[in-house]
Amino acid sequence: MSGSGKLKPAARVSGQKQDVWSIINEAAAATPKQPIVNMGQGFFGYNPPDFILEAAKKALDRVDCNQYSPTKGRPRLKRAIADAYSPFCGRKIDPETEVTITTGANEGMLSAFMAFVEPGDEVIVFEPFFDQYISNIEMPGGTIKYVPLHPPETGATKTSSAADWTIDFDELERAMTPRTKMIVINTPHNPVGKVFSKEELEKIGDLCVKNEVIILSDEVYDRLYYVPFTRMSTLSPEIERLTLTVGSAGKNFYATGWRVGWLMGPADLIKYVSAAHTRICFSSVSPLQEACAVGFEQAEAEGFWTQTVRETKAKMDRFNEVWGELGLPYSEPDGGYFVLVNMKKVKLPADYPFPAHVASRPRDFKLAWFLIQEMGVAAIPPTEFYTEGNAHLAEDYIRFAVCKEDEVLEEAKERLRGLKKYIQ
Ligand SMILES: Cc1ncc(COP(=O)(O)O)c(C=O)c1O
């Protein structure tokens, strides 16, 4: 480093410990058990449907599709999203003022926090959380107030429902202060697979109305639910007025690398999200916006929304068969494509040579390391999605992503059967 220290990085990036994705992906790449079965990160092991892929290829041949899109998004995509979502709200969504296109849900959420959070403002986040929320809130100077979802008490011994991960509403009320500016909800939830019930959402919504708190409802898995799904913004006009709904075409159409997302909400909130987005990246990938527009225009007629639920649920059931064989309990997901498995019964060898950066982390990191080294299966330790104080709640769980080809799921099951000898 130069003597002046001017090359020193900002604290927001230099203080970060190694992120879970790098730890797991590096371990997966280095293990002698190759090829690894990677059920860690939530990317799809298969392509978007043909009608959307074809639309993307065609878009590349069009001059305008290879140039900047308007900062708020391509009119065709905004219209397609407004048309696709209006039936859920029982009114016509205005594509010009109530929808804004972003570079994935991630950049959409960053834009929302940049739009509303001032230094010292508080944002409530439930644990476990999608890790990106944290830095996105901290960048504009926000302070995070954490409220844990409580796992089912019998989680280590019995398979339970993701619905059994519950909110203590007294804890939530205590977390709300006059400085609370926003709350983040995620339903269907990553990594729990919980679909918040209408009653739970109403209680959260009522608290937000009482305290005038903006609700960022992260609904990126909104097409993957296996029980009735309630959208936060549809609960009442008072709640709708405060709600920014986050969507992801990457999640909807199996194209996480396309980086197309959006925010929907009241015009007087969306305009500031768009303003922040303009300053962050100006506009989002044009040809893929066009392809996503075709996706929303045709998905219903193609039967894609029912197909995606049917196929993903079948993958979930296929994969989870192995836990019955092994006698390991899991949390049955009501939505999304992640499953949390409780591995308290897995006895790790006392003298196992964990590297220091794993040995110093909670037990789920050791479990994940062991699965990679001994079984050749990569999965995610969920305490990464907790603060230190609450990490113990999830230290026996491991998260698997089932959005992989069926053969991959079968191979994973075969390998995981090797856990039998470590289970007591
Ligand atoms: C809960 C949740 N929100 C947002 C995202 C990010 O979505 P996108 O890929 O559209 O940025 C993810 C991705 O894993 C997620 O799990």
Automatic annotation (TrEMBL):
<dbReference type="GO" id="GO:0005739">
    <property type="term" value="C:mitochondrion"/>
</dbReference>
<dbReference type="InterPro" id="IPR051326">
    <property type="entry name" value="Kynurenine-oxoglutarate_AT"/>
</dbReference>
<dbReference type="Pfam" id="PF00155">
    <property type="entry name" value="Aminotran_1_2"/>
</dbReference>
<dbReference type="InterPro" id="IPR015422">
    <property type="entry name" value="PyrdxlP-dep_Trfase_small"/>
</dbReference>
<keyword id="KW-0808">Transferase</keyword>
<protein>
    <submittedName>
        <fullName>Aminotransferase class I and II domain-containing protein</fullName>
    </submittedName>
</protein>
<dbReference type="GO" id="GO:0030170">
    <property type="term" value="F:pyridoxal phosphate binding"/>
</dbReference>
<comment type="similarity">
    <text>Belongs to the class-I pyridoxal-phosphate-dependent aminotransferase family.</text>
</comment>
<dbReference type="InterPro" id="IPR015421">
    <property type="entry name" value="PyrdxlP-dep_Trfase_major"/>
</dbReference>
<dbReference type="InterPro" id="IPR004839">
    <property type="entry name" value="Aminotransferase_I/II_large"/>
</dbReference>
<feature type="domain" description="Aminotransferase class I/classII large">
    <location>
        <begin position="36"/>
        <end position="416"/>
    </location>
</feature>
<keyword id="KW-0032">Aminotransferase</keyword>
<dbReference type="GO" id="GO:0016212">
    <property type="term" value="F:kynurenine-oxoglutarate transaminase activity"/>
</dbReference>
<keyword id="KW-0663">Pyridoxal phosphate</keyword>
<dbReference type="InterPro" id="IPR015424">
    <property type="entry name" value="PyrdxlP-dep_Trfase"/>
</dbReference>
